[in-house]
Design brief:
Number of helices: 4
Oligomer: single chain
Low-confidence stretches: none
Order of helices and strands: HHHHEE
Number of strands: 2
Radius of gyration: 14 Å
Strand content: under 5%
Shape: globular
Mean pLDDT: 77
Structural class: mainly alpha
Strand order of the largest sheet: 1-2
């Protein structure tokens, strides 16, 4: 891995990796790291049992890999996820 991340960036990478609907390509787009780099960060930052549980859950999951997703899913986030503008959560 090439880049040193701030604690805030690491938290966001881990959060995105935990989200079932966020593909690894979105993490790569936002932070410039590959799926393998993301896995290495997760391995380093998590407890071993938590990492194994996460890895088992995401391995081969179609929502975590853009190429395996259906063609109608073109977004990085769930349609039910709230939009955040500045520091305020937008109302529906």
């Amino acid at each position: 891995m090439k880049k040193d991340f701030t604690e805030r960036e690491l938290d966001r990478i881990i959060e995105m990796a935990w989200e079932d609907r966020t593909p690894f390509e979105a993490i790569e787009f936002q932070f410039g790291i590959s799926e393998q780099d993301t896995i290495e960060i997760m391995r380093r930052e998590m407890k071993p049992s938590s990492f194994r549980m996460w890895r088992k859950r995401v391995q081969g999951r179609s929502t975590k890999h853009a190429k395996l997703r259906s063609d109608d899913t073109k977004r990085f986030k769930s349609s039910r996820q709230r939009n955040i503008t500045g520091n305020k959560i937008a109302k529906r």
